[in-house]
Write a structure and sequence with these properties.
By secondary structure, the chain is α/β, with parallel strands linked by helices. It is built from 9 helices and 7 strands; from the N terminus they run αβαβαααααββαβαββ. Strands 3-2-1-4-5-7-6 form a 7-stranded mixed sheet, with helices on both faces. Helix 4 packs parallel to helix 6 and helix 5 runs antiparallel to helix 6. It is globular and about 55 Å long. It starts with 14 loop residues before the first helix and ends with a strand.
Length: 295
């Protein structure tokens, strides 16, 4: 199993480091919660490795993304039919034709988005199509809540990954899938739960927030509210692992997260910066992994 979308900030490249910190073999954990599920790289990795987990809760504040999860779970056959047709249509076009196709689909997606319909199969298909053909797997909206990512450069995008989608639909049948804020997960979580948190990262520069995937940006106030949530988990004996950016990449004196999560373990691990359109500005940077248990 693998994520059904490309996702900026996805954790596939960090999985080796995350696996070193999974607590399943050390503690009696039977439940798993991921309140910022995103593309689901960690979710699929954990469910593939630890099938004995009895209950799973995922959520995200991006309601469009959650709609896709629900449609893969409940409407897989019509979803695949639409995606297969889109892939066939897109593949035969030249570059100009692909541009017209992409921006027509983007306009259509934004029209559907305004209706706020639940379990919209067409909207889910457009989401996946735009993700696979747009720039770098980015999901970005403006202040009008309109998806505004430009077309990407992939010559052979796989819009319909049929085999993987069928594998995912089987797993999703037993998951609780919620569109909402991370605080809602407290109703599911108990001392037998492992919680992985991958919130929108604190921007390292003034322009880095252009990757925001909801019209409401995740500010420092939200980062601090999330820390309060984490402290609540810790007080109830819940094991958590949290990832975030490392401000010392751009300012060695910036110890924002060290102060915010002082009681816990804070590890710095290396990751590749992949979002910049200028390849010369991509490279290794450190990220933070924060957790409250012994390994």
């Amino acid at each position: 199993m693998k994520p059904f979308v490309k996702w900026v900030g996805g954790k596939r490249q960090l999985l080796p480091e995350l696996r070193k910190r999974y607590p399943f073999s050390i503690y009696p954990i039977t439940k798993y919660a991921e309140p910022f599920v995103g593309g689901g790289a960690v979710l699929w990795d954990i469910l593939s490795t630890y099938p004995s987990i009895k209950e799973v809760y995922i959520s995200d504040m991006n309601s469009e993304l959650i709609n896709v999860y629900r449609c893969i779970r409940s409407h897989i056959h019509p979803l695949i039919a639409i995606l297969a047709a889109m892939e066939k249509e897109f593949t035969v076009l030249d570059n100009e034709g692909r541009k017209r196709y992409y921006y027509q689909k983007r306009d259509w997606y934004n029209q559907l988005h305004k209706r706020q319909e639940e379990d919209s199969i067409l909207q889910a298909a457009l989401f996946i199509c735009l993700n696979k053909t747009g720039f770098n797997g980015l999901y970005r909206v403006n202040q009008k809540d309109e998806y505004n990512v430009p077309i990407g450069y992939s010559k052979h995008p796989v819009i319909c990954d049929t085999e993987n989608l069928y594998a995912l639909t089987k797993i999703l049948q037993r998951l609780t899938i919620v569109s909402g804020e991370y605080q809602d997960s407290l109703q599911f979580i108990d001392e037998n739960t492992f919680v992985y948190l991958d919130p929108p990262y604190k921007p390292l520069t003034a322009t880095a927030a252009f990757t925001a995937y909801t019209k409401d940006r995740f500010t420092d106030d939200e980062q601090e509210s999330l820390a309060d949530y984490v402290h609540t988990l810790d007080k109830h004996g819940v094991k958590f692992l949290l990832s975030n950016s490392d401000p010392t990449n751009t300012d060695p004196t910036n110890t924002y997260f060290n102060r915010l999560y002082e009681p816990y373990n804070i590890d710095r691990v290396w990751a590749n910066r992949m979002i910049n359109s200028n390849a010369s500005k991509r490279g290794k940077i450190s990220e933070l992994l924060i957790y409250n248990y012994k390994l």
